[in-house]
Design a protein that fits this description.
By secondary structure, this protein is of the alpha/beta class. It is 34% helix and 25% strand.
Length: 190
C-alpha cells in the first residue's frame, strides 16, 4: 500500500504491528541541523526530506512515508550520537530530568504531502556514570536519538512517559494510521 523511506528495523516492526503493507525504499538525506532552526521545524523538515528522497527513488506508484525522531531538552536537540563521548554526554544531560521526544511523519506522492508532529515526554531517573558506561557497552545506543532505546534496556531508566510510546520508539502508530487513511481517503488502513 505504501513505501517506507527508512532503514529502521523499529519502524518496520511498528508498521507491521498495525498491518500496513509496505515496501522499503532508500530515503537517505543530510540530517544536519540548520542554524537557528526550531526543533519542530527541524524534525518536520527531516521527515519531509526523507519522504521526498524515498519518492524520488520509488516507482512513484504509491505514497511514501518518511519519519524522523529527535530528543529535546531545553535548548538542546539530540539526534543520533556521533561516538561514545557524545552518547555519554547526552545521557548525562538527560539524567534525572524530563525531556521531549519529537517524532514527525510525512506522506508524499506526486501531488501532495501531509505531515504530522507528535511530541511526547520522557522522564529519566538519575543515572550514575556506571549506568551510562554499562549502557553504552550494550551497543544499544549507537543509532538512536539521544543515545537510548526506550523499547530496550534503557526502559529501566524511565520513570514515566506522557504521550505516545510508539512515537518515542520511532513511529506514532495512531497518527500514522490516521495520516495514511486521510491521505488515501479511507476510514482506516486496517
Amino acid at each position: 500500500m505504501i513505501y517506507l523511506a527508512s532503514n529502521s528495523p523499529r519502524r518496520f516492526e511498528l508498521l507491521k504491528q498495525i498491518n500496513i503493507p509496505f515496501t522499503q525504499v532508500v530515503g537517505d538525506i543530510n540530517e544536519t541541523h540548520q542554524e537557528g532552526e526550531q526543533a519542530q521545524d527541524y524534525v518536520l523538515r527531516l521527515a519531509q526530506q526523507k519522504a521526498q528522497a524515498g519518492f524520488n527513488n520509488s516507482k512513484k506508484n504509491k505514497p511514501v512515508l518518511g519519519a524522523d525522531t529527535i530528543v529535546v531538552l531545553g535548548e538542546h536537540i539530540f539526534g543520533k550520537p556521533k561516538n561514545q563521548k557524545h552518547a555519554v554526554q547526552m545521557l548525562g544531560l538527560l539524567s534525572g530530568k524530563t525531556h521531549q521526544v519529537f517524532t514527525a511523519i510525512a506522506l508524499i506522492d506526486a501531488i501532495k504531502i501531509n505531515t504530522k508532529l507528535v511530541i511526547s515526554e520522557v522522564t529519566f531517573r538519575s543515572l550514575s556514570e556506571q549506568d551510562i558506561t554499562d549502557y553504552w557497552a550494550t551497543g544499544e545506543s549507537k543509532d538512536k536519538a539521544a543515545g537510548y532505546a526506550i523499547q530496550g534496556i534503557a526502559a529501566k531508566f524511565v520513570t514515566h512517559i506522557v504521550g505516545s510510546y510508539s512515537a518515542i520508539v520511532g513511529l506514532p502508530l495512531y497518527e500514522t494510521d490516521q495520516l495514511i487513511s486521510d491521505f488515501l481517503g479511507s476510514k482506516s488502513v486496517c
